[in-house]
Amino acid sequence: MKRTAMIGHLTPAHAGQTVTLQGWVNRRRDLGGLIFLELRDRSGLVQVQVEPDSAAFADADRLRAEYVAEIEGTYQARPESQRKGGLADYEVIATRVKVLNTAKTTPFELEKGDSVAEDIRLKFRYLDLRRPEMQRNLVLRSKAVAAVTEYLDREGFVQVETPMLTKSTPEGARDFLVPSRQNPGEFYALPQSPQLFKQMLMIAGYDRYYQLARCFRDEDLRADRQPDFTQLDMEMSFVELDDVLSTQEGLMAHVFRETMGVDLPVPFPRMAYMDAMNLYGSDKPDLRFDLKFTDVTDLFQGGEFKAFATAQAVKVIAAPELTRKQIDELERIAKQNGAGGLAWLKRDGDGFTGGISKFVTAQAAELIARTGVEQGGTLLFTAGEWKKAVGALGAVRLALRDLFDLAAAGPQFHVSWVTEFPQLEFDDDSGTWTYMHHPFTAPHPDDLNLFGTDRQGEIRAQAYDLVLNGFEVGGGSIRIHDPAVQAQMFQAIGFSAEQAREKFGFFMDALEYGTPPHGGIAWGFDRLIMVMSGATSIREVIAFPKNNRGVDLMALAPSPVEPGQLADVGLSVAASDI
């Protein structure tokens, strides 16, 4: 029989009606001859009562957890003494039960899935995905896709798919390579992003493009990374930076409103990269709480405390009162993030005790005035090379957030922009300059004359990152559309004219045929849904993810292939690699 409705779509208006429901048995209980079932589908759960004299009793007696069943009966209000308010106040009195399929005993209790080892959940992902938490996440994702499509279609964007097999180009991570059977010894690369193709769509005159693009990066994994992932990719022609940002703000606000009923305040605040690093020690600061750094380099320069006296930067953060055990743990985090140590002071009246207090007698009053540290509060310092000092203290700031639940006092979601990234950064390992975002990012027009000088590290990029609750959920830039500037950029990162043409010749040719000013962005779609759902890993919002070792435990991939398959593409596996 055809089901009347999904369980979660039943309303009080169905009361007194005969309904047919289909789903999985969530739980079964026998009470004094009565059988109580909970029937579940992805929309909800309902209690089913089967009475001993019912024709359905014998079939209901066969049911066990996770059996697939069809239930027909009367939908009615539960006894008044059992009501708590809402749709749980209704139940089905079964008149017919049909077993649609049986099920083995599951390897873990679905209701206790959160406490089950992740590898077990991933091995039996088809069972894990039955859990309401997982279904809510994937439904949220589906609604977000629908909201994106609705908004961008309304704004005149054209959805275009770009190739999955393409040329290997340097984009910051290792490529996944695919050997070509028809061209022995040659390889495709799976795309790390559709960057060049979307720029060529602008050259082709499509003006506004978007795609939910599958991308691939062979890099070390963590909670917010997967080897194959989805990004919402967009590009716009005849725009300046403000045009791109305002469009993204409208889109993000629309997605939150349509999927979660949350109104994000727009426009989003903007912060320059250097300010973000100097104040929060991160280019993706969590701004749900206000805990800024204070620069005190000048207070210690040339002083008696040698660790601070010659430091390029001395940064301090005012924390609540901390125990020595908590300080030791924060120091471990600072060292893990590049600091030589974590100096500390505890405010006592108009001065300080503990830690480095004997070195700060002369600076005590100024430290209190600048930091606003409260009585009993703790000052935490990092010092040394600027980037290491701010980065380590940024990690300490996040640890303090978690220790004292500081973000709880702020908004549930805080979205901001970080802008004016450096165009180039120096790679100490190679001794050369490299790009911070990618080599197609346009420099600030006022800084063009710095290319090729000893000040090219000061060039500002027209780049921007979209930050949500301390996660970078999007990144983009205004692109280089002038072939001469693109050549300057390639030269700055050490590409000879021949190397640039070998890697990007097709794109350099395209730039010569009337390229409009353009810019765009890509959202890390998995990461966005992770933050929206409150999950702690993107694996919780992807239907069939890899684990933290890049392995699909359900399908057992990666896996060996037959020797004949390797021979077809002219490959063999060296014995030392097995």
From TrEMBL:
It catalyses: tRNA(Asp) + L-aspartate + ATP = L-aspartyl-tRNA(Asp) + AMP + diphosphate. InterPro entries: Aa-tRNA-synt_II, aa-tRNA-synth_II, aa-tRNA-synth_II/BPL/LPL, Asp-tRNA-ligase_1, Asp-tRNA-ligase_1_N, Asp/Asn-tRNA-synth_IIb, AspRS_core, GAD-like_sf. Residues 138-558 form the Aminoacyl-transfer RNA synthetases class-II family profile domain. PANTHER family: ASPARTATE--TRNA LIGASE, MITOCHONDRIAL (PTHR22594:SF5), ASPARTYL/LYSYL-TRNA SYNTHETASE (PTHR22594). Its EC number is 6.1.1.12. Catalyzes the attachment of L-aspartate to tRNA(Asp) in a two-step reaction: L-aspartate is first activated by ATP to form Asp-AMP and then transferred to the acceptor end of tRNA(Asp). Keywords: Aminoacyl-tRNA synthetase, ATP-binding, Cytoplasm, Ligase, Nucleotide-binding, Protein biosynthesis. Transmembrane segments: none annotated. ATP binds at residues 217-219, 226, 472, 524-527. The keyword NADP does not apply. The keyword Ligase applies. This is Aspartate--tRNA ligase. It comes from Deinococcus sedimenti.
